[in-house]
Automatic annotation (TrEMBL):
Belongs to the V-ATPase G subunit family. NCBIfam families: V_ATP_synt_G (TIGR01147). This is V-type proton ATPase subunit G. It comes from the Eukaryota. GO terms for molecular function: ATP hydrolysis activity; proton-transporting ATPase activity, rotational mechanism. GO terms for cellular component: vacuolar proton-transporting V-type ATPase, V1 domain. Pfam families: V-ATPase_G. Residues 61-72 have a biased composition (Polar residues).
Amino acid sequence: MAAQQSQGIQTLLEAEKEAAKIVQQARQYRVQKLKDARTEAGKEIEDYKKAKEQEFKSFESSHAGNTSNAQTAVDKETELKLQSITDSYNAHKDAVVKKLLDRVVLVKPELHRNLKKVEA
């Protein structure tokens, strides 16, 4: 009977070792699958990024001409406005200087309107 119990215990120990091996293999399988999934996701991200960069470059190249044309038009408009302001300045600077000098030099002394006459 002792031999039978010993053999039963031995069988249980072997079953436990086999179960541990199976669990270890399952863990390794899971870790490998996670690594594979990360690698695959990285590849998909790179492919998507490349596709979007290519799409952006094609969009940029198709609209680059419009940008340079718009910049040229804005530069011309700015130059015209600047020339108009310069012409206006040159035309009116003498009159403005004369008005300023007249205001500064020709002072009319007057009592302030809030000053009241004090009767003694």
